[in-house]
Amino acid sequence: MISLYLNNYPVLFRNFVVALLMTIVSSATAQHYTKTDHPNVVLIMADDLGWGDVGFNGNKIIKTPYLDQMAKDGIQFNRFYSASAVCSPTRASVLTGRNPYRTGVFFANEGILREEEVTLPELLAEQGYETGHFGKWHLGTLTCTEKDANRGKPGNMKEYNPPGKHGYNEAFVTESKVPTWDPMKMPKDKKKQKGNGWKSIEQGEAFAHFGTHYWDINGNKVADNLNGDDSRVIMDRVLPFINKSVEQEKPFLAVIWFHTPHKPCVAGPGYRAMYKGHDPQFQNYAGCITAMDEQVGRLRTYLKKLGCDKNTMIWFCSDNGPENGVGETGGFKKRKRSLYEGGVRVPGIMVWPKVVKSHVVTNYPAVTSDYLPTIVDVLGINKEKVPYALDGKSLLPLIKGEESQRKEPIVFCIKNQASICTDSLKLYIKGETCQLYKIVKDSLETRPLKDTANVFHLKREMQAKINAFRESFEGEEYEGKSYNKLQQKWHEPLKQQLAN
Fold this sequence. Notes:
2 domains, Alkaline Phosphatase, subunit A, eleven-stranded mixed beta sheet
């Protein structure tokens, strides 16, 4: 195990040790990597999972043995960030490599993944990959002919935006949230319909339809095999997709976006029993996480059975910090919807056995926008194939042990909040509040710095980035077709700061 917990040592010593250790990792792994390799790619995302909700980040109660093993087998990120503090924007960042403010996905259920955007499945389809999306979509509606979920309704064409428009050739998706057990059902008794979740519906018990459907790539509703644990329901579609790709001797991209543990949070009887003695809300929350964890283990076992595990790159993260009151941020400040660390610092793991041979724990700040440029770099895809400005950066140098510090800052925007993170500093702004933190030494954000020069510099850099986001949002890069179609208004996160 290589651990980079060196924050209490002098900077020069810390940097020397980091460089030395990463050089060792590089010599052990880089020789196994060539640009001609075409690894399979699996992008797994949990929904509202807190940084502290998993064993590998110190949780002693919630059982996540398969994720813990995955962390031991690969790179464990201490500073992995969702691109936003809510779901839809983060999901847009995964598929585009861009800050979601560039595409107008400002918040949950707002905006769509624009058709003009160059997406990861489109790029990989051109490389001969089979491409599939499974679970939550949340980047537009899946029907324009009937009521479905949050935004699907007859005649709503401007937000109709299924995965098939973005390079996928297979899908099993919902527009938005579903219960994490019996995903199409909720208790018929309104007294049992609690927002955070309910006791799983027993056999013979009356139920109502939740109001959301699963849809396939052709826009058909899926009606079979929808009972029990939702993560298992999703994985039941992923594995045949992978098997077919392997049989056809084609590499694959599988994007797996679990609904767990987003509310309504429901666990089956066996999973609730694992947490006997805790209150019902925690039993549901922890139980559905353990159920999801089992499906991650099932996936890795299946890949090994097929003989394709060595050259399969699997990433795992969450779309934002926890919302549910029992979710754990790991002590980080605030929760979902906040740009303090608890809202955007999430569990992060990557395994790629062919290249990453040992356990690496890193404090390198990475973000979901980094997925696309990393995979483009791994495959050696011509940069001209990605004509628009990217906000993520390739993590391949980190993976190969050639880089230990992030040179480009990460900018976050949501509502009236904005922040910018460098390798060592973080500037947080909300309304008229402006706080600077030495984020490595003060990760809990308890001691704002009085550093006028750095505040001025970072605020200016943040504003320049946000101005560039607005230019993209208004369609500068592709002539504004989607901008005109959706007729969205710009959300200026620094409005109050600019007024002062």
